[in-house]
Amino acid sequence: MAVPTTPRAASGAGAPPGSATPTPKLSTRPTAREEVKSRRNPEIERCSYVFAFSHARCSWWEPGWGEDPLWPDNREYSEVADGDGIVSWREVRYAEAKGLVWHEGGVVQDPSRAYGAGAPLAHCFWHVGKQPGPSAEPVLNLASGIESVYESNAEPDGWKQVVAR
Questions:
Q1: How far apart (Å, rounded) are the C-alpha atoms in residues 30 and 82?
Q2: DSSP string covering 117-156, please?
Q3: Residue ranges covered by each domain of the chain
Q4: Structure pTM?
Q5: How far is CA 99 from the centre of its chain?
Q6: 50: exposed, middle or buried (C-beta count within 10 Å: 0-12, 13-18, 19+)?
Q7: How do residues 6-34 score in pLDDT, each as one tens digit?
């Protein structure tokens, strides 16, 4: 099956003959959403699981957090960063597990914000209510630690409240 692609500029472009300005190369690498769609089983209409270490763009990461808005994607700060200009779920979750935070012009490790093996690899939202707003029903979280399955609320940082106890 052919994977759909979206052209995007890539670094390291060369200049055409007789030109002083480099011409950007276009990447044909598929976006995360296109790649996921191309591999999806068409028999499955809905799924309640979210893989928290995917290479897809992190939907809640706000550019502008710190002087380097893409710092989780910067190889200087993280061994899982791929430097593609997109802050992924994997890069953000790795920073949360290690306690990496932006502070006074750089990334530092804050042990009080390191969730280690309690950082979820996946979340299951099957039991969460269908109505908008907070839900009293639990989210199931799967982590790599000893107590690897635990419940939390559906708040964005609900799992952190449980792991920090």
A1: 15
A2: GGSEEEEE-TTS-SSSS--SSPEEEEESSSS-EEEE-SST
A3: 45-163
A4: 0.66
A5: 15
A6: middle
A7: 333 333 444 445 545 444 444 455 555 56
